[in-house]
Amino acid sequence: MVRSGASAWRWCSSEDIARGLFLQGVLKSIRSLGDEALEKRSANACGQSRFFDFFNYPIRLHLQMLSVAMPELAARHTDVEHALWLMGHCVATDFLESEAGRTVKVLVRGEPKRLVNNLPLTYRMSMTGERSVRWTGPQCCRFTMKRDFMPPSFHEGMLVAMLERLNASKVKVVGRQTDALESEYDISWQ
Question: Is 50 exposed, middle or buried (0-12, 13-18, 19+ CB in 10 A)?
Protein backbone atom coordinates (compact mmCIF):
# COMPACT_ATOMS: atom_id res chain seq x y z
CA MET A 1 0.00 0.00 0.00
CA VAL A 2 1.50 3.30 -1.03
CA ARG A 3 1.10 5.95 1.63
CA SER A 4 1.06 8.90 -0.73
CA GLY A 5 -1.51 11.10 -2.32
CA ALA A 6 -4.81 12.15 -0.82
CA SER A 7 -5.13 9.10 1.45
CA ALA A 8 -1.92 9.91 3.37
CA TRP A 9 -2.65 13.64 3.46
CA ARG A 10 -5.63 13.09 5.73
CA TRP A 11 -3.24 11.89 8.47
CA CYS A 12 -0.87 14.86 8.14
CA SER A 13 -0.76 17.43 10.89
CA SER A 14 1.19 20.66 11.15
CA GLU A 15 3.70 18.80 13.32
CA ASP A 16 4.60 16.35 10.53
CA ILE A 17 7.64 17.89 8.93
CA ALA A 18 10.59 17.02 6.73
CA ARG A 19 13.90 18.83 6.54
CA GLY A 20 14.80 20.57 3.33
CA LEU A 21 17.79 18.25 3.05
CA PHE A 22 15.45 15.28 2.65
CA LEU A 23 13.07 17.05 0.26
CA GLN A 24 15.95 18.29 -1.90
CA GLY A 25 17.19 14.68 -2.07
CA VAL A 26 13.74 13.55 -3.20
CA LEU A 27 13.76 16.14 -6.00
CA LYS A 28 17.23 14.99 -7.09
CA SER A 29 16.06 11.39 -7.13
CA ILE A 30 13.04 12.32 -9.27
CA ARG A 31 15.38 13.96 -11.76
CA SER A 32 17.79 11.03 -11.69
CA LEU A 33 15.12 8.35 -12.06
CA GLY A 34 12.92 10.45 -14.37
CA ASP A 35 14.11 13.62 -16.04
CA GLU A 36 14.36 17.37 -15.57
CA ALA A 37 10.79 17.99 -16.77
CA LEU A 38 9.38 15.55 -14.19
CA GLU A 39 11.47 17.18 -11.47
CA LYS A 40 10.03 20.59 -12.43
CA ARG A 41 6.45 19.31 -12.48
CA SER A 42 6.96 17.70 -9.07
CA ALA A 43 8.45 20.88 -7.61
CA ASN A 44 5.64 22.97 -9.08
CA ALA A 45 3.06 20.66 -7.48
CA CYS A 46 4.23 21.75 -4.04
CA GLY A 47 5.11 25.33 -4.98
CA GLN A 48 8.81 24.97 -4.09
CA SER A 49 11.66 24.79 -6.57
CA ARG A 50 14.35 24.63 -3.88
CA PHE A 51 14.51 23.55 -0.26
CA PHE A 52 16.99 24.83 2.33
CA ASP A 53 18.77 21.94 4.04
CA PHE A 54 17.94 22.57 7.69
CA PHE A 55 14.62 24.38 7.31
CA ASN A 56 11.46 22.49 8.25
CA TYR A 57 8.73 21.97 5.66
CA PRO A 58 5.32 20.30 5.93
CA ILE A 59 5.49 16.61 4.97
CA ARG A 60 2.51 17.21 2.67
CA LEU A 61 4.94 18.91 0.21
CA HIS A 62 6.74 15.59 -0.10
CA LEU A 63 3.46 13.78 -0.69
CA GLN A 64 2.47 16.33 -3.34
CA MET A 65 5.75 15.77 -5.19
CA LEU A 66 5.28 12.01 -5.06
CA SER A 67 1.72 12.17 -6.35
CA VAL A 68 3.02 13.87 -9.49
CA ALA A 69 6.21 11.82 -9.94
CA MET A 70 5.11 8.26 -9.13
CA PRO A 71 2.93 7.47 -12.17
CA GLU A 72 5.78 8.28 -14.55
CA LEU A 73 8.50 6.73 -12.37
CA ALA A 74 6.45 3.54 -11.96
CA ALA A 75 6.05 3.30 -15.74
CA ARG A 76 9.80 3.78 -16.26
CA HIS A 77 10.91 1.39 -13.51
CA THR A 78 8.57 -1.60 -13.70
CA ASP A 79 6.12 -0.64 -10.93
CA VAL A 80 5.50 1.70 -7.99
CA GLU A 81 7.28 -0.48 -5.42
CA HIS A 82 10.47 -0.74 -7.47
CA ALA A 83 10.41 2.99 -8.28
CA LEU A 84 10.03 3.80 -4.56
CA TRP A 85 12.89 1.43 -3.67
CA LEU A 86 15.14 3.15 -6.22
CA MET A 87 14.05 6.56 -4.93
CA GLY A 88 14.89 5.58 -1.35
CA HIS A 89 18.29 4.31 -2.48
CA CYS A 90 18.99 7.60 -4.30
CA VAL A 91 17.83 9.73 -1.35
CA ALA A 92 20.05 7.83 1.11
CA THR A 93 23.06 8.10 -1.20
CA ASP A 94 22.46 11.83 -1.56
CA PHE A 95 22.11 12.20 2.23
CA LEU A 96 25.38 10.38 2.90
CA GLU A 97 27.16 12.77 0.52
CA SER A 98 25.76 15.83 2.33
CA GLU A 99 27.44 17.55 5.24
CA ALA A 100 24.99 15.96 7.69
CA GLY A 101 25.58 12.54 6.13
CA ARG A 102 29.34 12.91 6.30
CA THR A 103 28.94 13.74 10.00
CA VAL A 104 26.92 10.55 10.50
CA LYS A 105 29.64 8.53 8.73
CA VAL A 106 32.29 10.01 11.04
CA LEU A 107 30.17 9.23 14.12
CA VAL A 108 29.60 5.60 13.14
CA ARG A 109 33.27 5.11 12.12
CA GLY A 110 32.38 2.89 9.19
CA GLU A 111 30.69 0.27 11.37
CA PRO A 112 27.31 -0.98 10.14
CA LYS A 113 26.14 -1.86 13.66
CA ARG A 114 26.87 1.68 14.88
CA LEU A 115 24.94 3.06 11.90
CA VAL A 116 21.92 0.90 12.73
CA ASN A 117 22.10 1.93 16.40
CA ASN A 118 22.04 5.55 15.23
CA LEU A 119 19.24 5.15 12.67
CA PRO A 120 16.62 6.77 14.94
CA LEU A 121 18.82 9.87 15.25
CA THR A 122 19.79 9.81 11.58
CA TYR A 123 16.14 9.70 10.50
CA ARG A 124 15.31 12.48 12.95
CA MET A 125 17.73 14.68 10.97
CA SER A 126 15.39 14.33 8.00
CA MET A 127 11.82 14.00 9.25
CA THR A 128 9.54 13.67 12.24
CA GLY A 129 8.28 10.31 13.48
CA GLU A 130 9.41 7.69 15.97
CA ARG A 131 12.00 5.03 15.19
CA SER A 132 13.52 2.29 17.30
CA VAL A 133 15.95 -0.62 16.93
CA ARG A 134 15.71 -4.02 18.60
CA TRP A 135 18.62 -6.42 18.03
CA THR A 136 17.74 -10.03 17.24
CA GLY A 137 21.34 -11.17 16.64
CA PRO A 138 24.89 -9.79 16.14
CA GLN A 139 24.15 -8.50 12.63
CA CYS A 140 20.37 -8.54 12.48
CA CYS A 141 17.68 -6.40 14.00
CA ARG A 142 14.14 -5.14 13.71
CA PHE A 143 13.83 -1.43 12.92
CA THR A 144 10.40 0.04 13.74
CA MET A 145 8.89 3.28 12.43
CA LYS A 146 5.84 5.11 13.73
CA ARG A 147 4.21 8.19 12.24
CA ASP A 148 5.94 7.70 8.90
CA PHE A 149 4.30 8.56 5.58
CA MET A 150 6.44 6.51 3.19
CA PRO A 151 5.79 2.90 2.21
CA PRO A 152 8.24 0.14 3.19
CA SER A 153 9.81 -0.17 -0.26
CA PHE A 154 11.14 3.41 -0.01
CA HIS A 155 12.81 2.74 3.34
CA GLU A 156 14.13 -0.64 2.16
CA GLY A 157 16.05 1.19 -0.57
CA MET A 158 17.31 3.79 1.91
CA LEU A 159 18.48 1.24 4.45
CA VAL A 160 20.22 -0.92 1.85
CA ALA A 161 22.07 2.11 0.45
CA MET A 162 23.21 3.26 3.89
CA LEU A 163 24.58 -0.15 4.87
CA GLU A 164 26.19 -0.78 1.49
CA ARG A 165 28.00 2.57 1.73
CA LEU A 166 29.60 1.26 4.93
CA ASN A 167 30.79 -1.83 3.03
CA ALA A 168 28.33 -4.22 4.65
CA SER A 169 27.89 -7.24 2.40
CA LYS A 170 24.84 -9.35 1.65
CA VAL A 171 22.56 -6.65 3.04
CA LYS A 172 18.96 -7.78 3.35
CA VAL A 173 16.09 -5.50 4.34
CA VAL A 174 12.51 -6.77 4.40
CA GLY A 175 9.87 -4.23 5.34
CA ARG A 176 6.19 -4.54 6.07
CA GLN A 177 3.48 -2.08 6.90
CA THR A 178 1.96 -2.85 10.30
CA ASP A 179 -0.57 0.00 10.52
CA ALA A 180 -1.58 3.08 8.54
CA LEU A 181 1.56 5.06 9.47
CA GLU A 182 3.65 2.28 11.01
CA SER A 183 6.10 -0.22 9.56
CA GLU A 184 8.89 -2.54 10.61
CA TYR A 185 12.03 -3.75 8.87
CA ASP A 186 14.08 -6.88 9.41
CA ILE A 187 17.66 -5.87 8.63
CA SER A 188 20.64 -8.20 8.30
CA TRP A 189 24.10 -8.19 6.71
CA GLN A 190 27.41 -10.02 6.78
Answer: exposed
Q: Encode pLDDT of 76-108 as tens digits.
A: 999 999 999 999 999 999 999 998 889 988 999
Spatial separation of the C-alpha atoms in residues 67 and 158, rounded to whole Å: 20
Question: Could you read off the pLDDT of 1-11 as tens digits, one per residue?
Answer: 344 444 566 77
Whole-structure pTM value = 0.92
* Angstrom distance (rounded) from CA 190 to CA 81: 25
Q: Are strands 172-179 and 140-146 parallel, antiparallel or unpaired?
A: unpaired
